[in-house]
Design goal:
- This protein is α+β, with helices and mostly antiparallel strands.
- About 35% of the residues lie in helices and about 20% in strands.
- It is built from 7 helices and 10 strands.
- The chain has a 4-stranded antiparallel β-sheet.
- It is globular and about 55 Å long.
């Protein structure tokens, strides 16, 4: 027999297949547009994985002011605070479009992370990327103009960078939501959106589409 090489062949890991066979403690849930998945103050007893659709994350202050802190899409996790000792949800999650979401009970997810190193590595990488995004958001709020912040959030919402192909952003996303996300007013968002459209950076065709030319707003002073 030929000698076996010292390096092991790394098997391809299929996250979708793994999550589909995680066993007890998982359930696929369907949410119509605008339905709450969980609300602030609910028990934090599960992690969620988006199979299809988009989910909006919000938080409400003690004075009743609501802010959008993120919009997630297919392949994203949310509700992961349950794994870090969070007892109650610190924010709310609602379907922005019709969604198929995998709900994984806290114990089942913890067991999966301990049992499958690929899942653990993937999940840690995902959380680190999310943390970096939050840091970038903070820097964006502190140092960039509202016009640049709007351009950046539109590019992020469109998942721009996938082979340079513009993707439809969430259909009919409100200017109020965009204003919340960039810390500005609806009138300013309306002004910049009209400007971007006239310059050909964005256009409407059933949904909002973003083009690579919008990067000029982010990259130039």
């Amino acid at each position: 027999m030929a000698p076996v090489k010292g390096t092991k062949k790394k098997r391809n890991f299929d996250l979708h297949a793994f999550l589909a066979n995680i066993g007890e403690g998982r359930k696929v849930l369907l949410f119509p547009k605008k339905q709450n998945i969980f609300v602030q103050g609910d028990a934090a007893d599960a992690v969620f994985y988006i199979q299809t659709g988009k989910v909006r994350l919000t938080v409400v202050s003690k004075t009743g002011k609501e802010a959008t802190i993120g919009i997630l899409g297919e392949g994203d996790f949310f509700g992961e605070g349950a794994l870090a000792g969070q007892i109650l949800r610190m924010g709310s999650a609602a379907a922005m479009t019709d969604c198929a979401v995998l709900r994984i009970e806290k114990r089942a997810m913890v067991n999966a992370l301990h049992r499958e190193h690929e899942v653990s590595d993937m999940f840690v990488t995902y959380l680190l990327a999310r943390n970096i995004r939050y840091e970038e958001d903070l820097v964006d709020q502190l140092f960039n103009s509202s016009e640049k912040r709007l351009a950046r959030i539109l590019l992020l919402l469109a998942h721009f960078g996938k082979e340079g192909i513009p993707e439809a952003v969430v259909p009919k996303i409100s200017q109020e939501s965009l204003a919340e996300m960039i810390g500005s007013t609806r009138s300013r968002v309306s002004f910049f959106m009209n400007r971007f459209r006239k310059l050909g950076f964005i256009h409407y065709n059933g949904g909002l589409q973003v083009h690579s030319s919008l990067l000029h707003v982010v990259l130039h002073d």
